[in-house]
Design a protein that fits this description.
This is Trypsin-like peptidase domain-containing protein. It comes from Luteimonas endophytica. By secondary structure, the chain is α+β, with helices and mostly antiparallel strands. It has 9 helices and 26 strands. It has 2 domains: about 35 residues; about 350 residues, no CATH class. A hairpin with a 3-residue loop joins strand 14 and strand 15.
C-alpha cells in the first residue's frame, strides 16, 4: 500500500506526493546545503578547525607534534644557521589575487571604529638574557661588525633618495639599530610548502602573547593547504639568531583567503612556542609591536622586509604615504617601494618611532606588487574589523 501525505501552504493543500519522492527531494536539499558549506564544513587536513567569528570565518591549525614547537638540530629543516642560510625567499606568483573584476573606488572613510593595541618592551635584562642564552650568535655578530669596520652609528645621509613617493634605506643593518625597537621585533619566518619546497617570508611580533603577523600566502598555499615547519628568527641578521629561534603552536588564516584569495585577505597570524633551546617566550627577548585597524587609507608608513633584491641578510625599509586604488579594491593599501621577494609579510608601521615601545603599530603587511607596477610599488591588506580582528580573536593576540 502506498502511503501519501498532504502539505498545506498558504491555506491550500497541495496534491499528495509519495513518501519516496519527498525523501528524495529532502535528500537533494540537504546535499545542496552541504555543498554550499563544503569549503568550511570539511577541513582539508587533520588538526584544521573552522571557526565562525564576528567579522569573518577563520581556519585555524595546531602544530602536529613537539618537533614543530621545539625545532632542534637533526630533527628539523630550519634548526641550524646553515639550513636557514640555504632557504630562498617566497616568490610572488600572482596566486594571491582574486580573479580580476571591475570594482568601485574603495570608501575613504574607515568602516567600523578605528582601533589599536599598544606594543610592549622586553624586560630590562633582555639583552643580558639573550647574550647568555645565545653567546655564539652574539659573538659572531660582534666579529662580523668589527671585520666590516662597521661604524658605531649610522652615517648621516644614508637614505638613498626618493623613488616616486617614498624613501628607501637599510633597516637593521647597523648594530645601533638591530638591538632596538622596532627592528628587533621583526624577523624571518621559515617554512615548508605543501609541495615540499622551503621558503622564507618576513614576520612581526605584534602581541604580548607571542603572536606574529605575516602574509597569508606565507602560511597557507592556496589550492594546496597549510605550510608547515614554521620557524621564526627575530632580528635575523647575517644568518644568526641573536634572540633564538621559535617553533609554533598554532596558525590562522581567513576562510576568504582559502576560498577566494585576494589582497585584502592576505594576512595570517601564528602563535609561537617557547624558544627551541630555552623555552623562553619571544616577548621576553624582544617585546612586541603594536597593531591597529580601521585606520585611514592615506597615512605615512614605514614598511620593512627582508627583500632579496637588496639583501637577504638584513631588512630594508620604504617610508612613504599609502593610498587606495580602485583597481585593488576595498581594504587594500598601496605604497611606493621597489622591494620584491622576501619582503612578503613585512609590517607596515604607523606612527613609526625608533628605539621606542610606543607607536610602531602594524597596520598592514606586504602582499605583493601593485597591479602593473612590479618593482615600483606594492600592496598590503589594510587591517580591518573583517581580517586582523577575527584572526586575533581566533588565536588569542
Amino acid at each position: 500500500m502506498e502511503v501519501r501525505h498532504h502539505i498545506r501552504i498558504a491555506g491550500r493543500a497541495r496534491a499528495p506526493r509519495p513518501v519516496g519522492t519527498v525523501v528524495r527531494l529532502l535528500g537533494r536539499s540537504i546535499l545542496v546545503g552541504a555543498l554550499a558549506l563544503a569549503p568550511f564544513a570539511a577541513p582539508a587536513l587533520a588538526g584544521e578547525k573552522p571557526l565562525r567569528l564576528p567579522g569573518g570565518d577563520v581556519v585555524k591549525i595546531d602544530a602536529a607534534d613537539v618537533a614543530q614547537q621545539r625545532p632542534k638540530a637533526g630533527a628539523h629543516p630550519f634548526a641550524t644557521r646553515e639550513q636557514r642560510a640555504a632557504v630562498r625567499p617566497m616568490r610572488w606568483s600572482g596566486a594571491e589575487s582574486a580573479p580580476p573584476r571591475a570594482q568601485a573606488a574603495p570608501a575613504r572613510v574607515p568602516a567600523g571604529p578605528a582601533g589599536a593595541a599598544d606594543g610592549g618592551g622586553a624586560p630590562p635584562f633582555a639583552e643580558y638574557l639573550a647574550r647568555s642564552h645565545f653567546p655564539d650568535a652574539w659573538e659572531a655578530l660582534d666579529a662580523a661588525a668589527k671585520a666590516a669596520g662597521e661604524p658605531a652609528a649610522e652615517p648621516a645621509g644614508e637614505k638613498d633618495g626618493a623613488h616616486h613617493p617614498y624613501v628607501r634605506f637599510p633597516g637593521n643593518y647597523y648594530t645601533s639599530r638591530w638591538q632596538l625597537a622596532p627592528w628587533n621585533k621583526i624577523g624571518k619566518l621559515y617554512f615548508t610548502t605543501p609541495s615540499g619546497g622551503s621558503s622564507y617570508c618576513t614576520a612581526n611580533v605584534a602581541s604580548g602573547n607571542s603572536v606574529i603577523i605575516t602574509a597569508a600566502h606565507c602560511v597557507y598555499t592556496r589550492g594546496q593547504g597549510f605550510n608547515s615547519n614554521f620557524v621564526f628568527v627575530p632580528a635575523d641578521r647575517y644568518g644568526v639568531a641573536p634572540y633564538g629561534s621559535f617553533g609554533w603552536s598554532s596558525a590562522s588564516v581567513m576562510g576568504n583567503w582559502i576560498n577566494q584569495g585576494g589582497r585584502r585577505w592576505d594576512v595570517a597570524v601564528v602563535k609561537l612556542a617557547g624558544e627551541a633551546s630555552t623555552g623562553v617566550p619571544v616577548t621576553s627577548y624582544v617585546g612586541w609591536l603594536g597593531r591597529s585597524w580601521n585606520q585611514p587609507y592615506s597615512e605615512f608608513h614605514y614598511s620593512i622586509g627582508y627583500a632579496s633584491n637588496f639583501s637577504t641578510q638584513y631588512t630594508t625599509v620604504c617610508a612613504g604615504q599609502t593610498y587606495s586604488s580602485p583597481a585593488e579594491g576595498d581594504n587594500v593599501l598601496v605604497q611606493g617601494c621597489d622591494m620584491t621577494y622576501g619582503s612578503s609579510g613585512g609590517g607596515w608601521l604607523r606612527q613609526f618611532a625608533h628605539d621606542s615601545h610606543g607607536g610602531n603599530y602594524v597596520n598592514a603587511v606586504v602582499s605583493g606588487p601593485h597591479i602593473g607596477d612590479f618593482g615600483q610599488s606594492y600592496v598590503g591588506p589594510r587591517f580591518a574589523s573583517d581580517n586582523i580582528v577575527p584572526l586575533c580573536n581566533a588565536i588569542g593576540c
